Every structure is written in structure tokens, then in C-alpha cells.
């Protein structure tokens, strides 16, 4: 078995937690009435924590305005208490850490006055 040896940039190494990493709490996302939302993921982030008070569909890719696909996207249960931790799929960047990734959020069932908290680490 071979191991892919990679040199990390300073920002990447810090985000891996080896040197403390970061913790970015973002303004909560208004997901009311199943309106499509897009969140720009910090380039240094390696994990995303999501806490929603409504079930949400999520997708991560390199396109800023991708719409969620009802039959294809991952659904996370939202009850206002559960925290979901997701690793940022750095493989999408194809080895180029400067490639921007986006988190796309869509409320699974249209309900008013619902929010999703997004924390990046």
C-alpha cells in the first residue's frame, strides 16, 4: 500500500487541527419556506457542523449556485438539538486548495420561520 505524501499549505495544516485550527460561527441561515440557500465554505475549513430546526437537504460542490436535487441529496434531520458534523470533501478541489467550495442547503419540507446554523472548523 502506498501513502500519498502531500505538503500542506500553512492554512491547511492549521485547519487540520495540528496547530490549533479555527472555529468560525457564521450568521444563521434562514431556510424558511424551502428557499434555496448557498454558503461559501472557508478555504481552510475541514469540518462543518450543522444544527437546524427543520430537516434539510445538503450538497457540497464547486458551483456557487447549484440547486439541491430532491431525490439525490443527503437529508439531515433537524430538531433544533441535533448537531451534524460533516468533513469538507477536499477531494473535490482536485489537489488545488484555492478552489472554492460551496454548501447548498434546502429545507426538506416547506415550513416558515426555520433556520440552520453553520459552523466551520
Provide a descriptive summary of the structure in words.
This protein starts with 9 loop residues before the first helix and ends with a strand. The strands form 2 sheets. Strands 1, 2, 4, 7 and 9 form a 5-stranded antiparallel beta sheet that branches. Strands 3-8-5-6 form a 4-stranded antiparallel beta sheet, with no helix packed on it. The protein is mainly beta and 121 residues long. It contains 1 helix and 9 strands; from the N terminus they run H-E-E-E-E-E-E-E-E-E. It has a single domain, classed as Jelly Rolls, CATH 2.60.120.
Write the layout of secondary structure elements.
Layout: H1 10-15, E1 24-25, E2 29-30, E3 37-41, E4 47-52, E5 56-61, E6 74-76, E7 84-87, E8 101-107, E9 115-120
Antiparallel strand pairs: 1-9, 2-9, 3-8, 4-7, 4-9, 5-6, 5-8
What structural category characterises the helix and strand content? mainly beta
Overall morphology:
globular
Proportion of residues in extended strands: 25-35%
- Estimate nothing, just give the exact number of structural domains: 1
Helix content: under 10%
The low-confidence runs, each spanning 5 or more residues with pLDDT under 50, are 13-19
Q: How many DSSP E strands?
A: 9
Amino acid at each position: 500500500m502506498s501513502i500519498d505524501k502531500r505538503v500542506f499549505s500553512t492554512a491547511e495544516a492549521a485547519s487540520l487541527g495540528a496547530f490549533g485550527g479555527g472555529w468560525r460561527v457564521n450568521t444563521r441561515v434562514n431556510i424558511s419556506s424551502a428557499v434555496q440557500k448557498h454558503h461559501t465554505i472557508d478555504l481552510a475549513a475541514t469540518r462543518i457542523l450543522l444544527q437546524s430546526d427543520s430537516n434539510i437537504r445538503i450538497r457540497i460542490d464547486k458551483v456557487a449556485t447549484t440547486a439541491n436535487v430532491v431525490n439525490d441529496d443527503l437529508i439531515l434531520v433537524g430538531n433544533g438539538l441535533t448537531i451534524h458534523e460533516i468533513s469538507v470533501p477536499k477531494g473535490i478541489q482536485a489537489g488545488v486548495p484555492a478552489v472554492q467550495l460551496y454548501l447548498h442547503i434546502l429545507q426538506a419540507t416547506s415550513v416558515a420561520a426555520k433556520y440552520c446554523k453553520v459552523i466551520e472548523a
